[in-house]
């Protein structure tokens, strides 16, 4: 059976706002809309990464000011300033290094055309094969440095990319589950699948022909269905893997992942859609941003074929021990 690779990731990202400025006294204020959030990207080191962002006219609420199209062209330049990495680390308590200059190319000049409120696409291309250590994180701050025909506002002048290069997810070893413990499951079929099937533990037994099945006998629970696992130690959790049951229907259609260090405070690790709709299919994906975690919570929020109950043959993590 050909393994299935994730196609759609809907990440949840932390909001970051660090003020910057530049000197131009013209009346049209500009900003980077995408700078509202820290742009966390995990990418395959063997493949190029392309990111698109923009410069736009700002409204009072830092939304692109549609209807405030400029009367004449606004020109601007962009730069990468290493001092922004120092500033970021001091403000956020981190120790990220600047992404090396030989790992990327950047659009450094752009315009907001007359009659528009937003620039053409601005492009960051990252090609880092053989240049970065896998799974280390690097910061790249891109700042509006000069403006002609407009002026810099006091916020969202710098877009921060947090970039982590990874090896191909299909070449990564899966976690050792020998010390794992299921600490919570929302639903499991305890009798209808026989004594050696249906329970949550069967998603962790190393057997692709057994499975965790949510309850269907005597009443069928609706999604969401969740399972919480204690991995027994703190790890850098890079992503996860699961294998679908080898027959039937009602496979998971959408999954959300959360991680925690203490099982009290939880952090989103992403929402994953477009999952395999077939038997004995393997799915692997990295998280949008790697997580320090001891616990993870996998929640099935939607099921194929309009079903309520669902099933999974195997669940595992892609992780690195500290």
Structure description:
- The protein is mostly beta strands and 322 residues long.
- It has two domains: 14-166, hypothetical protein (bacova_03559) (Immunoglobulin-like), CATH 2.60.40; 172-321, Galactose-binding domain-like (Jelly Rolls, Sandwich), CATH 2.60.120.
- Helices cover 3% and strands 43% of the residues.
- It has one helix and 22 strands.
- It has one helix spanning 82-92, and strands at residues 4-5, 8-10, 29-31, 39-44, 49-53, 56-57, 74-80, 97-98, 104-106, 109-112, 122-126, 137-148, 151-152, 158-166, 181-185, 212-213, 225-243, 252-260, 267-273, 282-303, 311-312, 314-321.
- The strands form five sheets. Strands 1, 2, 15, 17, 18, 19, 20 and 22 form an eight-stranded mixed beta sheet that branches.
- β18 and β19 (267-273) form a beta hairpin.
- The longest helix is centred in the N-terminal third of the chain and has 11 residues, at 82-92.
- It is elongated, with a radius of gyration of 23 Å.
- It starts with a strand and ends with a strand.
- Mean pLDDT is 89; it is low at 1-21.
